[in-house]
Structures are given as structure tokens and as C-alpha cells.
């Protein structure tokens, strides 16, 4: 990609340095180059994140860094051995400014929906389902476009205090 841009620029330099009789054409070419360059710098490599959750009610990472709008492939692995009913784990990423503690309280009453309260789904950017021992799930989503910290938690009852972290979007 970079080589192509450079060769286009080199070509337009040659054209303009020849002192051609059609300056308008040269100007148009220059405008096209600028557009191509902007597109090239906006493209980010997709981010791959693997998070492990264990029987000690811990994630193995507490921080994720991404750029605005970046494509994220996130895998949550429950590496524990305790039954799902007593030690299930999920990953829930929230919109900016959500009261995560209030969400966790409401989630405790949402056992039928794996601790995802239907009334608060608009608070969520992305989430996995509730995983039992040895299970894993991969979700695909885009980092929010607005910079800032975005909290994530496990909403299984009692886990939120020790299972939380932040996605930093730049
Ligand atoms: Cu958990």
C-alpha cells in the first residue's frame, strides 16, 4: 500500500515538474493522493484479545488498549473446574458512563437470562454468554468510536468486585 502511494506521488511529481500545459489535471491527481493516504492511515489491524477466567473469581487481564473503531476479536476462556451454577463467568463491556455497580445488582435478579438483565441491554457494547468450566467463546465487535475508558465485568452474582477491567480507547 505504502509503495503504491509513493509511486503515485512520484508520478505526479514527474508530471508537474515537466511543466505540462494542463495544470488542472495535475491538481486533480494531487487531491486523489490525499484521499488515498487518509484511508490508509485509518485502517487498523484487528486486535485479538484472550481473557482467562478462573475459580478464584479473577480475569487474567485488567486492561485492554484499542484505537477508536478497531475491530476486536475477544475470546473468553473459563479455565476453572467448578460447576457453572456456582462459578460461571462472562465478559460484559459497557457503554461509557454506565453505573456498573447498579448493573451488577440488577444482574443478580436475572438468573433466567444468565445474569444479563433484559432491561439494561442498552448499557452493553458487547458480551459473551455465561461459560462453564472448560468452555470458551469468541465474540467479534468494534471498539467504540469515542475515546475514553470503558469498563468490563463478569456479572455472575458476587463476581463483579474482583472480575472487572477497563478497555481504553484512543
Ligand atoms: Cu465470573
Strand content: 25-35%
Order of adjacent strands in the largest pleated sheet: 2-8-7-4-5
Helical/strand content category: alpha/beta
Low-confidence stretches: 1-26
Radius of gyration: 24 Å
Estimate percent helicity: 25-40%
Distance between the termini: 24 Å
Shape: globular
What binds here, in terms of ligands, is: copper (II) ion
Note the total helix count: 4
SSE series: HHEEEHEHEEEE
Strand tally? 8
**Major beta sheet summary:** 5 strands, mixed
Instruction: Give the rounded overall mean pLDDT.
Output: 84
Write the layout of secondary structure elements.
Blueprint (H helix, E strand, L loop, with lengths): L1 H16 L5 H20 L4 E7 L9 E4 L4 E8 L5 H4 L4 E3 L5 H8 L16 E4 L8 E7 L5 E6 L10 E6 L1
Parallel strand pairs: 1-3, 2-8
Antiparallel strand pairs: 3-6, 4-5, 4-7, 7-8
Helix pairs in contact: 1-2
The structure holds copper (II) ion.
Give a quick precis of the structure.
The chain is α/β, with parallel strands linked by helices and 170 residues long.
If you had to describe this structure to a student in words, what would you say it looks like?
With 170 residues, the protein is of the alpha/beta class. The protein is built from 4 helices and 8 strands. The chain has helices at residues 2-17, 23-42, 84-87, 100-107; strands at 47-53, 63-66, 71-78, 92-94, 124-127, 136-142, 148-153, 164-169. It has a 5-stranded mixed sheet, with no helix packed on it. Helix 1 packs antiparallel against helix 2 (23-42). The longest helix has 20 residues, at 23-42. The two termini are 24 Å apart. The chain binds copper (II) ion. Copper (II) ion binds at residues 53, 57, 89, 154, 156, 159, 163. Copper (II) ion (CU) is lined by residues 53, 57, 89, 154, 156, 159, 163.
Amino acid at each position: 500500500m505504502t509503495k503504491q502511494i509513493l509511486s503515485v506521488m512520484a508520478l505526479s511529481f514527474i508530471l508537474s515538474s515537466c511543466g505540462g500545459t494542463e495544470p488542472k489535471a495535475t491538481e486533480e491527481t494531487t487531491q486523489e493522493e490525499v484521499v488515498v493516504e487518509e484511508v490508509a492511515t485509518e485502517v487498523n489491524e484487528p486486535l485479538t484479545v484472550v481473557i482467562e477466567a478462573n475459580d478464584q473469581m479473577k480475569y487474567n487481564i485488567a486492561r485492554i488498549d484499542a484505537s477508536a473503531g478497531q475491530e476486536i476479536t475477544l475470546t473468553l476462556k473459563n479455565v476453572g473446574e467448578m460447576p457453572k451454577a456456582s462459578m460461571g463467568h462472562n465478559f460484559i463491556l459497557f457503554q461509557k458512563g454506565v453505573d456498573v455497580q447498579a448493573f451488577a445488582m440488577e444482574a443478580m435478579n436475572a438468573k433466567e437470562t444468565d445474569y444479563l438483565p433484559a432491561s439494561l441491554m442498552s448499557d452493553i457494547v458487547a458480551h459473551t454468554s455465561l461459560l462453564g468450566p472448560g468452555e470458551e467463546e469468541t465474540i467479534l465487535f468494534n471498539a467504540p468510536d469515542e475515546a475514553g475508558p470503558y469498563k468490563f465485568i463478569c456479572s455472575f452474582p458476587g463476581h463483579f468486585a474482583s472480575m472487572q477491567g477497563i478497555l481504553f480507547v484512543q
